[in-house]
Amino acid sequence: MEHEKLCRIREAIVSFFKLCEQEPTPESYSAWLKTLDVLQRNHLKKLGFEDGRHLISFQCYCLEQKGYFIDEFLKIQLSEDDFDYCLNIGAVVPYQETSTSFS
C-alpha cells in the first residue's frame, strides 16, 4: 500500500517537472542565486549553470516564476489521502503565496 502511494506521488512529481517546457537560462540561474543565502549562493556559483540547471530547487524556482507551484499541482493530481501523506513525510512544503491555478 505505501509503495503504491509513493509511486503515485513520484508520478505526479515527475508530471510537474515536465511543465518546464523551456530549458532554464543562465539569466534565470543568476536570478535564482540572488534568492539564496550567501553560503548556498557561493557554492552554486562555483557549481555553475551547466551543472546547476538540473537541480530540483532551481527547476522549482523556474516553474514558480511562471506561476506553477508544486503543492497546488499535487493537490489536484493526488487523492486527498496521498496529498496528506506527501505533506506528512515532507515530500513537499506548501507554498506561502497565492499562485496560478491548475484547474
Polypeptide structure, described:
The protein is mainly α and 103 residues long. 63% of the residues lie in helices and 0% in strands. It contains 7 helices and no strands. Helix 1 crosses helix 7 (80-88). The radius of gyration is 15 Å and the shape is elongated. Residues 98-103 have low confidence and may be disordered.
Concise overview:
The protein has 103 residues and is mainly alpha-helical. The protein has 7 helices and no strands. The chain starts with a helix and ends in a 15-residue tail after the last helix.
* Cα radius of gyration in angstroms: 15 Å
- Can you count the beta strands? 0
| Structural class designation | mainly alpha
Mean pLDDT: 86
Largest sheet: none
Strand content: under 5%
- Helical fraction equals 55-70%
N-C termini distance: 28 Å
What shape does the CA trace take? elongated
Order of helices and strands: HHHHHHH
Low-confidence stretches: 98-103
- How many DSSP H or I helices? 7
